[in-house]
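Record 1 of the preview.
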Amino acid sequence: MKIFINDIPVLIKKSTANLDHRQFDVIIDEQLSKVSHKRLIDDVWVRNASKEDIDHLLKLMTEKKFRNLDALTFTVKNRSETVNYLKEKFKVILAGGGVVSRDGKVILIFRRKKWDIPKGKLKKNEGPDVGAIREVEEECKIKVALEEKICTTWHTYLSNGKFILKKTYWYKMTCLDDSKMKPQKKEDIEDVRWMDFDQTRQALYNSYRTIRHVIKRFYRLQNSQPV
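->
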Protein backbone atom coordinates (compact mmCIF):
# COMPACT_ATOMS: atom_id res chain seq x y z
CA MET A 1 0.00 0.00 0.00
CA LYS A 2 1.38 3.41 -1.01
CA ILE A 3 -0.10 6.55 0.60
CA PHE A 4 0.81 10.11 -0.38
CA ILE A 5 0.94 12.39 2.66
CA ASN A 6 1.64 16.04 1.95
CA ASP A 7 2.76 14.70 -1.43
CA ILE A 8 5.34 12.34 0.14
CA PRO A 9 5.05 8.64 -0.80
CA VAL A 10 4.66 6.34 2.22
CA LEU A 11 4.84 2.56 1.75
CA ILE A 12 3.72 -0.14 4.17
CA LYS A 13 5.34 -3.55 3.67
CA LYS A 14 5.61 -6.83 5.55
CA SER A 15 8.63 -7.32 7.80
CA THR A 16 9.53 -10.30 5.63
CA ALA A 17 9.81 -8.10 2.51
CA ASN A 18 13.21 -8.37 0.88
CA LEU A 19 14.41 -4.76 1.03
CA ASP A 20 17.91 -3.60 0.17
CA HIS A 21 19.20 -1.39 2.97
CA ARG A 22 21.51 0.35 0.48
CA GLN A 23 18.57 2.12 -1.16
CA PHE A 24 17.76 3.99 2.07
CA ASP A 25 19.55 7.02 3.51
CA VAL A 26 18.18 6.63 7.05
CA ILE A 27 17.12 3.42 8.85
CA ILE A 28 15.22 3.72 12.13
CA ASP A 29 14.63 0.92 14.64
CA GLU A 30 13.60 2.88 17.72
CA GLN A 31 10.22 4.16 18.93
CA LEU A 32 9.13 6.93 16.58
CA SER A 33 7.75 9.23 19.27
CA LYS A 34 11.35 9.56 20.48
CA VAL A 35 12.78 10.29 17.04
CA SER A 36 13.48 13.90 16.06
CA HIS A 37 11.72 14.93 12.84
CA LYS A 38 15.09 16.33 11.71
CA ARG A 39 16.25 12.74 11.15
CA LEU A 40 13.54 12.23 8.54
CA ILE A 41 15.45 13.18 5.40
CA ASP A 42 15.79 11.64 1.93
CA ASP A 43 14.66 7.95 1.79
CA VAL A 44 13.76 6.61 5.24
CA TRP A 45 13.06 3.03 6.33
CA VAL A 46 11.33 2.45 9.68
CA ARG A 47 11.79 -1.20 10.67
CA ASN A 48 9.43 -3.23 12.86
CA ALA A 49 7.05 -0.30 13.24
CA SER A 50 4.05 -0.60 15.54
CA LYS A 51 0.58 0.64 14.57
CA GLU A 52 0.97 3.44 17.11
CA ASP A 53 4.30 4.48 15.58
CA ILE A 54 2.75 4.75 12.14
CA ASP A 55 -0.31 6.57 13.41
CA HIS A 56 1.89 9.08 15.25
CA LEU A 57 4.05 9.87 12.24
CA LEU A 58 1.25 9.96 9.67
CA LYS A 59 -0.64 12.53 11.71
CA LEU A 60 2.55 14.55 12.18
CA MET A 61 3.21 14.44 8.44
CA THR A 62 -0.35 15.51 7.66
CA GLU A 63 0.04 18.58 9.88
CA LYS A 64 3.65 19.46 9.01
CA LYS A 65 5.58 19.62 5.75
CA PHE A 66 8.77 17.57 5.68
CA ARG A 67 10.61 19.32 2.89
CA ASN A 68 13.71 17.12 3.08
CA LEU A 69 11.86 13.80 3.15
CA ASP A 70 11.70 12.05 -0.24
CA ALA A 71 9.99 8.78 0.71
CA LEU A 72 9.12 6.76 3.79
CA THR A 73 8.86 2.97 4.06
CA PHE A 74 7.43 1.11 7.06
CA THR A 75 7.92 -2.62 7.57
CA VAL A 76 5.40 -4.24 9.92
CA LYS A 77 4.68 -7.74 11.23
CA ASN A 78 1.02 -7.76 10.18
CA ARG A 79 0.46 -5.61 7.10
CA SER A 80 -3.29 -6.20 6.64
CA GLU A 81 -4.01 -5.49 10.29
CA THR A 82 -1.96 -2.28 10.10
CA VAL A 83 -3.72 -1.07 6.94
CA ASN A 84 -7.15 -1.70 8.49
CA TYR A 85 -6.07 0.14 11.63
CA LEU A 86 -5.08 3.18 9.57
CA LYS A 87 -8.33 3.18 7.62
CA GLU A 88 -10.24 3.33 10.90
CA LYS A 89 -8.24 6.38 11.95
CA PHE A 90 -9.19 8.40 8.87
CA LYS A 91 -12.44 9.15 7.10
CA VAL A 92 -12.18 7.40 3.74
CA ILE A 93 -13.41 9.26 0.64
CA LEU A 94 -13.60 7.62 -2.80
CA ALA A 95 -12.69 9.43 -6.01
CA GLY A 96 -12.11 8.67 -9.67
CA GLY A 97 -10.14 10.22 -12.50
CA GLY A 98 -8.36 9.49 -15.72
CA VAL A 99 -5.52 10.08 -18.13
CA VAL A 100 -7.15 11.03 -21.42
CA SER A 101 -5.11 10.36 -24.54
CA ARG A 102 -5.32 10.70 -28.33
CA ASP A 103 -2.70 10.67 -31.06
CA GLY A 104 0.19 10.41 -28.61
CA LYS A 105 -0.96 13.34 -26.45
CA VAL A 106 -2.61 13.52 -23.01
CA ILE A 107 -4.82 16.10 -21.33
CA LEU A 108 -3.52 18.03 -18.33
CA ILE A 109 -5.42 20.63 -16.34
CA PHE A 110 -3.99 23.64 -14.52
CA ARG A 111 -5.54 23.97 -11.07
CA ARG A 112 -4.36 25.97 -8.06
CA LYS A 113 -1.10 26.84 -9.82
CA LYS A 114 -0.18 23.18 -10.46
CA TRP A 115 -0.54 20.85 -13.44
CA ASP A 116 -2.94 18.06 -12.63
CA ILE A 117 -5.18 15.47 -14.27
CA PRO A 118 -8.99 15.50 -13.98
CA LYS A 119 -10.52 13.69 -11.04
CA GLY A 120 -13.19 14.12 -8.39
CA LYS A 121 -15.21 12.54 -5.58
CA LEU A 122 -17.61 9.74 -6.38
CA LYS A 123 -21.30 10.20 -5.77
CA LYS A 124 -23.18 7.92 -3.38
CA ASN A 125 -23.48 4.38 -4.80
CA GLU A 126 -21.54 5.44 -7.92
CA GLY A 127 -19.04 2.97 -9.33
CA PRO A 128 -15.45 4.22 -9.66
CA ASP A 129 -15.37 3.78 -13.44
CA VAL A 130 -18.66 5.64 -13.92
CA GLY A 131 -17.58 8.39 -11.53
CA ALA A 132 -14.20 8.74 -13.20
CA ILE A 133 -15.82 9.28 -16.61
CA ARG A 134 -18.28 11.80 -15.18
CA GLU A 135 -15.58 13.81 -13.41
CA VAL A 136 -13.28 13.91 -16.44
CA GLU A 137 -16.08 14.97 -18.78
CA GLU A 138 -17.33 17.64 -16.35
CA GLU A 139 -13.92 19.14 -15.60
CA CYS A 140 -12.75 19.25 -19.22
CA LYS A 141 -16.05 19.50 -21.13
CA ILE A 142 -15.13 16.57 -23.37
CA LYS A 143 -16.49 13.10 -24.20
CA VAL A 144 -14.38 10.04 -23.39
CA ALA A 145 -14.40 6.26 -23.64
CA LEU A 146 -13.15 4.18 -20.73
CA GLU A 147 -10.21 1.82 -21.17
CA GLU A 148 -8.24 -0.14 -18.58
CA LYS A 149 -7.52 0.80 -14.99
CA ILE A 150 -4.13 2.42 -14.41
CA CYS A 151 -3.79 2.19 -10.63
CA THR A 152 -5.25 3.24 -7.29
CA THR A 153 -3.69 5.94 -5.11
CA TRP A 154 -4.22 6.96 -1.50
CA HIS A 155 -3.46 10.36 -0.03
CA THR A 156 -4.33 12.18 3.17
CA TYR A 157 -5.26 15.76 3.94
CA LEU A 158 -6.96 17.82 6.64
CA SER A 159 -10.51 19.08 6.12
CA ASN A 160 -12.15 21.16 8.86
CA GLY A 161 -9.72 19.68 11.36
CA LYS A 162 -10.50 16.08 10.38
CA PHE A 163 -8.10 13.61 8.80
CA ILE A 164 -9.24 12.45 5.38
CA LEU A 165 -7.89 9.44 3.48
CA LYS A 166 -8.82 9.69 -0.20
CA LYS A 167 -8.76 6.60 -2.38
CA THR A 168 -8.66 7.50 -6.07
CA TYR A 169 -9.23 5.07 -8.94
CA TRP A 170 -7.37 6.05 -12.12
CA TYR A 171 -8.25 4.90 -15.64
CA LYS A 172 -6.94 5.18 -19.16
CA MET A 173 -9.41 7.01 -21.36
CA THR A 174 -9.67 7.85 -25.05
CA CYS A 175 -11.04 11.21 -26.14
CA LEU A 176 -14.07 10.94 -28.42
CA ASP A 177 -14.91 14.64 -28.75
CA ASP A 178 -12.99 17.72 -27.56
CA SER A 179 -14.79 20.29 -29.72
CA LYS A 180 -16.20 22.02 -26.62
CA MET A 181 -13.17 21.51 -24.39
CA LYS A 182 -12.75 24.19 -21.71
CA PRO A 183 -11.87 24.30 -17.99
CA GLN A 184 -14.54 23.93 -15.32
CA LYS A 185 -14.04 27.25 -13.55
CA LYS A 186 -16.08 26.40 -10.45
CA GLU A 187 -13.53 23.66 -9.71
CA ASP A 188 -10.70 26.23 -9.82
CA ILE A 189 -9.43 24.90 -13.15
CA GLU A 190 -7.75 27.64 -15.17
CA ASP A 191 -6.64 25.72 -18.26
CA VAL A 192 -7.15 22.41 -20.07
CA ARG A 193 -4.43 21.48 -22.53
CA TRP A 194 -3.31 18.68 -24.82
CA MET A 195 0.38 17.89 -24.29
CA ASP A 196 2.81 15.59 -26.06
CA PHE A 197 5.33 13.48 -24.17
CA ASP A 198 8.01 16.18 -23.82
CA GLN A 199 5.47 18.83 -22.80
CA THR A 200 3.96 16.47 -20.23
CA ARG A 201 7.37 15.66 -18.76
CA GLN A 202 8.13 19.38 -18.44
CA ALA A 203 4.74 20.16 -16.88
CA LEU A 204 5.19 17.47 -14.24
CA TYR A 205 8.00 19.48 -12.66
CA ASN A 206 5.18 21.73 -11.45
CA SER A 207 2.82 19.02 -10.29
CA TYR A 208 2.30 16.54 -7.45
CA ARG A 209 4.14 13.29 -6.80
CA THR A 210 0.79 11.51 -6.85
CA ILE A 211 0.15 12.77 -10.37
CA ARG A 212 3.68 11.92 -11.52
CA HIS A 213 3.14 8.41 -10.18
CA VAL A 214 -0.11 8.00 -12.15
CA ILE A 215 1.38 9.39 -15.37
CA LYS A 216 4.39 7.09 -15.07
CA ARG A 217 2.07 4.11 -14.65
CA PHE A 218 0.08 5.28 -17.67
CA TYR A 219 3.15 5.44 -19.93
CA ARG A 220 4.29 2.09 -18.63
CA LEU A 221 0.97 0.60 -19.77
CA GLN A 222 1.46 2.36 -23.09
CA ASN A 223 4.90 0.72 -23.41
CA SER A 224 6.33 4.19 -23.85
CA GLN A 225 9.41 5.88 -22.48
CA PRO A 226 8.77 6.68 -18.78
CA VAL A 227 8.64 10.30 -17.64
